[in-house]
Amino acid sequence: MTALPTDTLSLSHRTLVLACRELGLDSGNATPIRIAENALWRLPDRIVARIGRPGRAHVARREIAVAGWLAGHGIPVVRPLPGVGRPVTVNGRPVTFWEELPSHRNGSVQEMAHLLRALHALPAPDFPLETLEPFGRIWAGLSLRTPWEASTVRRLRDHAAGLEEAWDELLAGSLLPRCVLHGDAWVGNVASAADGTAYLIDLESFAIGPREWDLTSTAAKLTSTGTLTRAEYEDFCAVYGTDVTAWHGYPLLRNIRELRMTVYAARIAAEHPDHPQARQEARYRAACVIGQRGPRPWLWTAVP
After folding, report:
1. What angle in degrees, to the nearest 10, is found between the helix axes of 150-172 and 276-289?
2. For residue range 13-48, what is the model confidence (pLDDT) as tens digits?
């Protein structure tokens, strides 16, 4: 895990301790797995705690419902800790507790495709899921104190407004089938165990919308960031059964995904001012999407 500011780690740990205390769980020897938008901690007895962002208790409750629904349909998924069917809220942050998965690596694009194909074929659940809305996080991120100059923010806002208008027109003028979406479908959200089981994880972005949104996440790694080879992408398409880049709406969804990734880097930079990699990456990504770094694919670096 990338080194993080001590105060960030301490705040996350204090939240964890208070949540564990409420449920009578042991937080001794807890170790951080990942501290980013959401924090993951490993506890004794093969328990993982997930600390969400403030004000997101409703999302945490939905994650627990989604996990049960997926398991009921035979899709391998991370499971809530038995007997803990609700989030614990500490200073506005929801904390959920999960069974630790077996030792695993990030999934492959083929495993991602298999899981998406199964997910997209399911009927809607008997609990409400929000309609996919890609721009909330974009506008929220653009309103933060960012590492960008004012002129860059203005250009990004104009870009976002144009994309949102085009998105509304696409949905209004087409008959795209809707299905249940993962919402953030990339290989880092698939955990592949040694026995060959691929688990779906990170369930907070589940929504109802066009399947093309989930497929764009993988396609953009080929066309936008160059982090996927043509052969890997063709394997993904062969397993899922379609190539979203051949669809007329793909450039729009790709551009929205690029802007969301750019704003994500800026949000990490805003929340962690002494995180130089996030600041540099946010500036570089912004320059790419407003046309200052040449044609795609660009060389984007992951922001933890």
Report:
1. 60
2. 999 999 999 999 999 999 999 887 789 999 999 999
Q: Cα angle vertex 280, ends 276, 285, to 5°? A: 145
Q: Are 290 and 158 in contact (CB under 8 A)?
A: no
Q: CB of 53 within 8 A of CB of 27? A: no
Paired tokens of 172: 């209004």
CA-CA distance, 288 to 300, in Å (whole number)? 9
What is 181-237 written as a DSSP string? Answer: E-SS-SGGGEEEETTS-EEE---TT-EEEETHHHHHHHHHHHHTS--S-HHHHHHHH
Distance (Å, rounded) from C-alpha 107 to C-alpha 119?
A: 16
CB-based contacts of 295: which residues, under 8 Å, 6+ apart?
none
Q: 8 vs 304, which has greater pLDDT?
A: 304
Overall pTM > 0.90:
yes
Phi, psi of 23 (to 5 degrees): -100, 0
